[in-house]
Write a structure and sequence with these properties.
This protein is an alpha/beta fold. 34% of the residues lie in helices and 15% in strands. The chain is globular, with a radius of gyration of 21 Å. It binds nicotinamide-adenine-dinucleotide (NAD). Nicotinamide-adenine-dinucleotide binds next to helix 4 and helix 6.
Length: 329
């Protein structure tokens, strides 16, 4: 059975070729992003393996189904980019990797917090220029601070455990409270209450109709002035132009983003020799108290190995008529 990987990078090829694939699976790696223009490359491949910035809207799914694809194997946990109703109509099964390493993403959120707080991005540049001054680098003790966790599933819980280790007070917001957070002493509050009390807020909920632009001009007004916001969830959880206004006024004191609403056209590509066309991202990158990483929170050796193992297992089981990790609309 032929499997075509879209948006594949060298680290994908490495992790999938090191994992043990069932005999009979032929893996083909394609660096191009899946779009209407590239969907034809999948002709003759029963399985398409896609990542988060691939286009899995109705018209692309239609092209894939017409050319013989029967399974979309997502090598991600999130599936907000798939038109599940169209997939069902076209008889395409969709599987995903529900958990690979929650620690990878949680630890990256913490890396953003520490770098923003202690201004490591500025200190790194300064010492390389021979400037050994400390002005503007004052941080704060995380010990004793109040941290708000929005979405307390696997990643939110891993994040909460780390922050509890720093001696932070935990607040949480999730329609389904997690007993593990309660055991850590977290208090579940409404989102406005959490935003009013937390000095650091980290988003770990999925993107859906209820969470799109959860952080917007109205909710940003609830923040403790100067608070830090971290988003490793999905770009559209926040209204980015509203973040820029809040950064300009000082209402938002620090911003760490691993995801961006318009990232599909930019992330995972080297565009360093071209003018940045996205004016919102360009403005964000001018702030000294903002760090943007290009959707790398998942990128650890352990997570890549787990993604490869589960994806290959998902494909093998689906082929045997015993599908697991199906995503249904
Ligand atoms: P999970 O399903 O274990 O947890 C999600 C939690 O969000 C659940 O507890 C759920 O009840 C909660 N939730 C649902 N709707 C909510 C709402 N309206 N408000 C608050 N909470 C809500 O998922 P997870 O494995 O912890 O992953 C969380 C998200 O992280 C994924 O959906 C994905 O978008 C993102 N993610 C990002 C990366 C990255 O590399 N940056 C990697 C993996 C996952």
């Amino acid at each position: 059975m032929r499997v075509l990987f879209f948006s594949s990078q060298t680290y994908d090829q490495d992790s999938f070729t090191q994992a043990t694939a069932a005999p009979g699976l032929e893996l083909h790696f394609q660096p191009a992003r899946l779009t209407e223009d590239t969907a034809a490359l999948a002709a003759g491949h029963e399985v398409v393996c896609a990542f988060i910035n691939d286009d899995l809207g109705a018209s692309v799914l239609q092209c894939l189904a017409a050319a013989g694809t029967r399974l979309i194997a997502l090598r991600s946990a999130g599936y907000n980019h798939v038109d599940l109703a169209a997939a069902k109509r076209l008889g395409l099964a969709v599987v995903r990797v529900p958990a690979y390493s929650p620690h990878a993403v949680a630890e990256h959120a913490v890396a953003l917090i520490l770098a923003l707080n202690r201004r490591l991005h500025r200190a790194y540049n300064r010492t390389r220029e021979g400037d050994f001054t400390l002005h503007g680098l004052t941080g704060f003790d995380l010990y004793g601070k109040t941290v708000g966790v929005v979405g307390t599933g696997q990643i939110g819980a891993a994040f909460a455990r780390i922050m509890a280790g720093f001696g932070c007070q935990l607040l949480a917001y999730d329609p389904y409270p997690n007993p593990e957070l309660l055991a850590l002493g977290a208090r579940y509050l409404s989102l406005p209450q959490l935003l009013r009390q937390a000095q650091v807020i980290s988003l770990h909920c999925p993107l859906n109709d209820a969470t799109r632009h959860l952080i917007n001009a109205r909710t940003l007004a609830d923040l403790t002035p100067g608070a830090m916001l971290i988003n490793t969830g999905r770009g559209a959880l926040v209204d980015t132009p509203a973040l820029i206004e809040a950064l300009k006024s000082g209402q938002l004191g620090y911003l760490g983003l691993d995801v961006y609403e318009e990232e599909a056209q930019l992330f995972f590509e080297d565009r360093s020799d071209q003018p940045l066309q996205d004016d919102v991202l360009a403005r964000l990158l001018t702030f000294p108290n903002v760090i943007v990483t290009a959707h790398q929170a998942f990128l650890t050796r352990e997570a890549l190995a787990a993604i490869a193992a589960t994806t290959l297992d998902n494909i093998t089981r689906w082929a045997a008529g015993n599908a697991q990790n199906l995503v249904e609309g």
